[in-house]
Amino acid sequence: MRRKRHTWTSNIVAAVLLLLLLSPLLWMLQLSFRPADDVIAEQLLFRPTLENYTALWTGTFPQSFINSVITSGVSTVLSLLLGVPAAYTLARFRFRGDRHVALWILATRMAPPIAFTIPFFLAFKFAGLSDTLTGLILIYLTFNLALVIWTMRSFFAGVPRSLEEAAWIDGCGIWGTFLRVVIPLSTPGLAATGILCFILSWNDFFFALILTRTKAMTSPVAIVNFMQYEGWEWGKIAAGGTLVMLPVVIFTLLVRTWLVRGLMAGAVKE
């Protein structure tokens, strides 16, 4: 009886905490289905409508949504393609100044984003990359590379060297061993790192606001356009926020098993 009582108490506490954590998201979701003239009403009961969602696709929001998909997806893929081999090199090979290289890579994530605003703005203006998808991809690649290298470096360091040595004896070269042995063993970490890179790029607002105007505007910036001097269009803001959140939620649910394994790797020593 004591164990059952403890289980019921734990379940109730977990349910209350989960409800508190999800309450802002649930409130935004119900707000997106409210009519425009009933958005700030106090009553909880209302007649749901899709007018806020249909109104989004008549302006610039669809193109900004596509821009977010392109910049986030391409920057994530490039970050993994460039960062994973670099992380393996730092984890397995020793060369003069390797610790300094790793420290300088980490230093790119130490300063606040606003510290890089003026250099990036002037460089992009000189190179003609302002308000372009290529410019945003390069920005996200710059910051995601440090995350990929430092995260994957720890995963590669945990792979037993004996497995690589066995592959070398069987005739595999360095890169053959890397692709056939190391990468499959580090798949959970690779999935978790890719998800984190995608989320950081997808949710970026600061650099997208500073370095874009209309052509390369992303969806987080497009939502700000619904905050006007005449009034804030709360229904469209909630609908836009729900649509921006939806791809990340779906993507995370699809790879949740790999994400949990990747985040928990190294927490328990076997």
Beta-strand percent range: under 5%
Task: Give the CA-based shape.
Answer: globular
Domain tally: 1
- What is the first-to-last residue Cα distance? 35 Å
Mean pLDDT comes to 82
| Class inferred from helices and paired strands | mainly alpha
Helix-residue proportion: over 70%
The CATH homology group name:
MetI-like
Q: Please describe the biggest sheet, giving its number of strands, its sense, and whether it closes into a barrel.
A: none
CATH architecture grouping: Orthogonal Bundle
Quaternary structure: single chain
Assigned CATH class: Mainly Alpha
> What is the number of helices?
13
Write a structural description:
It is a single chain. By secondary structure, the chain is mainly α. The chain has a single domain (37-264), classed as MetI-like fold. It has 13 helices and no strands. The protein has helices at residues 2-32, 51-56, 61-92, 98-107, 117-127, 133-157, 161-169, 174-185, 187-202, 206-211, 219-224, 234-254, 256-264. It is globular.
Provide a short characterization of the protein structure.
By secondary structure, this protein is mainly α. 72% of the residues lie in helices and 0% in strands.
